[in-house]
Design a protein that fits this description.
SH3 type barrels; six-stranded antiparallel sheet; alpha+beta; Arc Repressor Mutant, subunit A; homodimer; DNA-binding; 40% helix; two-stranded antiparallel sheet; binds manganese (II) ion
Chain lengths: 223, 223
DNA sequence: GTCCACATTTTGATGAGTCAAAAATACAGT
DNA sequence: ACTGTATTTTTGACTCATCAAAATGTGGAC
């Protein structure tokens, strides 16, 4: 029996939630999960227990939940579908990068592997989606991307923006407007703890100062 | 509240069922509907009653069900999505016409109007899908196609195949193999009631004899 | 007109997924 | 150790969609 959309959404939320934990931990707390899915805490608990029955997750009461090997594979494939679809919508269908998330959120549960592979082929087998998020292989593997954020990268050193970790439309449009999309070359000029801000020099000597919260969502690679 | 996939499937089945009735009647019998949807008769009855509550259908106990204006519009939009998707998969994604139905059956419930319109635009606003089925407009209107089948068209008169009414893979591959797809020019040479068959002359003087049941599924227009 | 076969509706039950609110638990601070 | 707060789990209930099987209605054959 193939997993329902609901099951897929839980697995994906655990998969994505585990990576984004601060501090990084194996177990995703139920509150986190419930929040990500927009359901009541009790609902998440119940659902996670049935996922554990199915062998898709390991559940430790009062501690949290983690994917099993099987759950991880399934989750990675949902994420693969999501990101291939986003890429397809941007490259082939003329969508903006801030407009694709909701559409992909629905389509990821219904498109066949066949169609995903056709899209992937037409796109030239890309490694990342429009936001720079890595696309898992059909086997569910993601090559780890060693990466720093604007908060941790060296100062006054040229870097390339490779990834934007936030699907919020308004944030994405802000990023686009200030030429901070993946691929752009920039430099962090200064960080100031007191004002909670980071000053960036972008394309054409453009300067912009953003908050540390926003800065942590922009990942870069040395150049 | 937007209709669930289930509601959309019921409305579509009623919409499509009403056209295919023999004899043509306003009301689709519950048995027919249950059969088309693959659910138990009692299930269809229950569901149709709630659809009637919502004002999407008119329900006459022991007689059948018909769409209201509102139901008709919704159903036509589901059919539009289905057929635009099928056309997109064939023209843009390299699918065969016998491979698109199942994929479209799922996608029709999740793709946005925005994406459907983008597909439609890329396809050059086609009037029919790969099987020759008419695509309703965004307003839910289908221009009536005056049409005859191979059973009713004049003998020894050149006609063009315009539509194939059957989504079965095996049947579609048979049709394709014998060059009887929409667009092909043919002539009905003879019909024989005793042998329940129809002899057709197709492309390159090809002759083929098919049963009346199959013949009734091939629609043609005078040329 | 009566009766029968068949279609339809009703009934009672089930599974998936959800919520609100009550109960239990963990844990940090004193 | 004790207590308070935040998190988590439990409980009871609800909606949607479904089935099997019993009850009922319909229309045709005779
Ligand atoms: Mn996304
Ligand atoms: Mn993304
Ligand atoms: Mn179809
Ligand atoms: Mn079709």
């Amino acid at each position: 029996m193939l997993p329902s959309s609901t099951v897929e959404n839980y697995l994906k939320a655990i998969y994505l939630g585990a990576g984004a934990l601060t501090p990084p931990s194996r177990l995703v707390p139920m509150g986190q999960l419930a929040g990500a899915l927009g359901v009541a805490p009790g609902t998440a608990t119940t659902m996670v227990k049935t996922l554990a029955e199915s062998g898709l997750v390991e559940y430790e009461p009062y501690a949290g939940v983690a994917l099993t090997k099987a759950g991880q594979k399934l989750a990675a494939l949902v994420v693969r579908r999501h990101r291939v679809i986003e890429m397809f919508l941007v490259r082939m269908m003329g969508y903006g990068w801030d407009e694709v998330h909701d559409e992909a959120e629905q389509m990821e549960h219904v498109v066949s592997d066949r169609l995903i592979d056709r899209m992937d082929e037409m796109l030239g087998r890309p490694e990342v989606d429009p936001h720079g998020d890595p696309i898992p292989t059909p086997e569910g593997i993601v090559k780890p991307q060693p990466m720093q954020s604007l908060l941790t990268c060296p100062l006054a050193t040229p870097v390339t923006i490779t990834r934007v970790i936030d699907q919020d439309k308004v944030f994405l449009r802000f990023i686009e407007k200030h030429n901070l999309k993946p691929g752009e070359s920039i430099e962090v000029e200064a960080r100031d703890a007191a004002s909670d801000s980071v000053r960036v020099r972008g394309r054409d000597e453009q300067r912009i100062t953003i908050g540390t919260k926003a800065a942590s969502k922009l990942l870069v690679q040395a150049r």
